[in-house]
Amino acid sequence: MDTKYIFVTGGVVSSLGKGIISSSLARLLLSRGYRVTIQKFDPYINIDPGTLNPYEHGECYVTVDGHEADLDLGHYERFMDTPTSRANNVTTGRIYQSVIDKERRGDYLGKTVQIIPHITDEIKRNVKLLGNTGKYDFVITEIGGTVGDIESTPYLEAVRQLRWELGQNALCIHLTYVPYLRAAKELKTKPTQHSVKLLQEVGIQPDVLVLRTEKEIPASMRRKVAQFCNVDPDAVIQSIDVPTIYRVPLTMHAQHLDEIVLRKTGIEPEGEPDLHRWNHFLDKIEAAKEEVKIGLVGKYVELQDAYKSINESLFQAATYMDRKLSLHYIHSEKLTAENAGEKLDGLDGVIIAPGFGQRGIEGKFHAIKWCRENDVPTFGICLGMQCMVIEFARNVLGLEDANSTEMDLKTPHNVIDLMEEQKSISNMGGTMRLGAYDCVLDPESLTAKAYGTDHVRERHRHRFEFNDEYRERFEQGGMKCVGKNPDAHLVEVVEIPGKRWFVGTQYHPEYQSTVLHPNPLFIDFVKAAIAYGAEKQAAK
Ligand code: GLN
Question: Quick one: pLDDT at residue 419?
């Protein structure tokens, strides 16, 4: 069959959850046996979000092939259960860079290079790249931003042209917001009508409207929207707030989104999607009553999206362990030696978050010291692992002022330092150790047992590394380097054997945890936290 292209645009406001709608549709189509991928086109000029502060766009996600990507790619993977790659995330910066490179090479043969057709052609070429591999029946393209934004205009023009060229092989889903005015006790569809009008002005007629709402939208109101917007009444779908994003595929299926998409792209739907395993997960969410209390020590705690993949990995692990996740954010900047006990007591497990730079770092050391001394299950991720190493050096090995050279260039004990190859790099973008690398684990380690194998491949995003010159001293002092990269011999995992659960990973296991395949290390950490919680309860 021809590859079908589904475009997902958004209107009225941002943050409506285009990523979740795209992911939910992908889940439904995959569960019907189709081959599906999702790509995100972001209208900003950065080449990738790698250099963006989390305050700007939340977490930076990393693909297997080492692309620093928009966090929506994390949703795609968690819902689809298949990896994405660099090709799944394109920005205006990448489009312009490619066009400018072509111009310098002389590819445009003396023509004036313009937004239309050169930028739009480059967008169209990129939209079709994954489809042209022949690997997919459906390519879902999420257009970042909101209709009406100046920066989105070239993308919408590309979508308009593609719809024209692809005919029935293309379809446009537009997501809008229907606000509820409390004072008037009314839902309002006018913003949706305006938003669709904006789309129509640029020549795009949406085929499906998804209305995000906090209250049930009556059928009569949906019919009215259909009539005003030239959309079939059954193709006006509501997306009402649900307790978990993982329920959205079901609410979309209940309103036949998958069947509508199939029919409109010329496919007669057969049977039902097989959501057996997905529903099993949802049942577990519903059934979980008891809590597991996890603390997350980091500096971006006021921002939910900064640790998105960690939150989701913990949620998945807790759910599979029949627990409700109770996640407590602990601001590392506010942690001191004096208040660490007060802030961390009562938690069943603690995560020390990844990050960059000096801010909040001392608080992480205080948290780790308290957790280590009180034998609380502790999981350090990337910078969190590096902090575990530094804290151990200072407080157990007696290496005063030990540090990472990221924080203190003049430290007498650079237990975390730059790799040789990193030292000459001056550009910030895309120059870290990025993407999936092999890791060989000591078969006796807790980590190997958690994974059930001694060979794993996990994703990285960092510049600094454990300094091998100190390895012997750490091992003698009780912190073991149990995971190593087989090629570069870099230390990837440290553990303190004898503790309940004290593991630090240089890699980010949270980038590889999906609903259908939760990450084993998160499962094992949550298991240890539950056991510790039960132990404390019994001792009371
Ligand atoms: N800042 C540290 C480094 O660059 C850790 C990065 C991270 O936690 N992702 O090595």
Answer: 79
Orientation angle between helical segments 18-31 and 72-80, nearest 10 degrees: 20
Distance CA 513, CA 495 (A): 21
- Atom 1 of ligand 1, residue of closest alpha carbon: 356
Q: Which residues line ligand 1 (CB under 6 A)?
A: 354-356, 382-383, 406, 461-464
- Give me the pLDDT at residue 520, please: 98
Q: How many whole angstroms from 411 Cα to the centroid of ligand 1? A: 18
Name the average pLDDT for the chain.
94
The best mutation among 51, 404, 417, 462 to test binding of ligand 1, ranked by most ligand atoms within 8 Å of the C-beta, falls on 462
Confidence of residue 426 (pLDDT cuts 50, 70, 90): low
- Give, using CA atoms, the residue closest to atom 6 of ligand 1: 462
162 Cα distance to chain centroid = 28
- Token output for 94: 């990448």
pLDDT on residue 344: 95
| Residue 457 Cα to ligand 1 middle (Å) | 18
**Catalytic-role residue among 172, 371, 382, 387:** 382
374 has a pLDDT exceeding 80: yes
Tell which atom from ligand 1 comes closest to the C-alpha of 356. Answer: 1
Q: Tell me how far the alpha carbon of residue 463 lies from the centroid of ligand 1, in angstroms.
A: 6
Contacts for 11 with CB less than 8 Å, ≥ 6 apart: 146, 147, 148, 174, 175, 176, 177, 191, 192, 195, 196, 198, 199
Residue 430: the pLDDT is 65
Evaluate if residue 346 carries a pLDDT over 70: yes
CA 401 to ligand 1 center in whole angstroms: 19
Residues 6+ positions from 513 with CB-CB distance below 8 Å: 78, 309, 312, 313, 316, 317, 519, 522
**For this structure, is 481 an active site residue?**
no
Q: Is 510 a catalytic residue?
A: yes
Closest ligand 1 atom to Cα of 461: 9
Q: Which two tokens stand for residue 46?
A: 């950065």
Q: What is the dihedral of CA 271, 82, 97, 428, to 10 degrees?
A: 150
Q: What is the pTM of this model?
A: 0.94
pLDDT tens digits, 281-328: 999 999 999 999 999 999 988 887 899 999 999 999 999 999 999 999
List, in sequence order, every residue forming a beta bridge with 440; answer none if it has no partner: 455, 484
Each residue of 138-157: pLDDT tens digit? 999 999 999 999 999 999 99
